[in-house]
Amino acid sequence: MTRWLDDDEQHAWRSFLAASQVIQEELDRQLQRDSGMPHAYYAVLVRLSEAPERRMRMSELAAGVNSSQSRLSHAIARLEERGWVRRLPCPADRRVSWASLTDAGHDVLAAAAPGHVEAVRRCLFDRLTPEQTGQLAAICAAVLGERRS
Amino acid sequence: MTRWLDDDEQHAWRSFLAASQVIQEELDRQLQRDSGMPHAYYAVLVRLSEAPERRMRMSELAAGVNSSQSRLSHAIARLEERGWVRRLPCPADRRVSWASLTDAGHDVLAAAAPGHVEAVRRCLFDRLTPEQTGQLAAICAAVLGERRS
DNA sequence: TCAGTTTAGTTGAACTCTCAAGTTCTTGGG
DNA sequence: CCCAAGAACTTGAGAGTTCAACTAAACTGA
Hints:
Two copies of one chain form a homodimer.
Chain A: H1 7-35, H2 39-50, E1 55-57, H3 58-64, H4 69-81, E2 85-89, E3 97-101, H5 103-123, H6 130-144
Antiparallel strand pairs in A: 1-3, 2-3
Chain A binds a DNA duplex through helix 1 and helix 4.
């Protein structure tokens, strides 16, 4: 009844799991060590820094970093404690909050970025040919495509 | 100074992050919902079930599931509470513990496996061509290869 | 109008993971 | 033989994530 994985799939699956874990852990460790934040928080700062006026609605921001609303809410609370983000009420719809990157947050991000990019290169792109980089993008696009529910 | 990511790399990187997060979360949710355990614990049970006599030293097991010793120690403590794993002292070297899969643990694993494989297919292999499966394996092998430190 | 539904976001508890420190045991050189 | 160094594992505290429940505000249609 169950369609088990064949040998190729089994191998690809285990390699994928190991590789994605190794990358996640390496990035988390690097950012925690050098900038005192987990990768998820870094992603929030990046996304905010790219938004017009460096601010976004909580739910947009959550979608933009693949996070649940709850997780983002906790994360923003932490980032607010550190003075890197501020919450602003939205006059047009009072259910909505804006998250806004502060100047201090922007500075922290600018300081963290070079080391982070270096880590990304070291654990991913330095190990791939340009052709493989393209293949990876296509594979990930297929995984993300037409996602239901 | 910093070698920033070019457009292709930027795109590949963000796709990869999103895809691997989506897959991780989907699997975690499925296993938690249907079998009451996180994916990391499932991996421990799988690895143990494949070992001779269904038991392994803690440090081998940790390496086998890409886990730190500390994380594994906590995980085995939980799994032991549920009666799915037992710890056995090693007579030859008294620093060593064996983790051993119980019959109950084996049954739980057997019950969890079909739903898990189905989820893996749904979120990964059903979306890839066989060629892409091979490419993914090669890419992940490159990421994992010759890892120092 | 207003009751019911949907949307936005927050909160608290339970759980997992990380990091640093600690315990117990083995090993290797003097 | 003995002690310092290293190895195997555990522990506890702190931090992040998840889930379900909750508040508050905005729609919807009868």
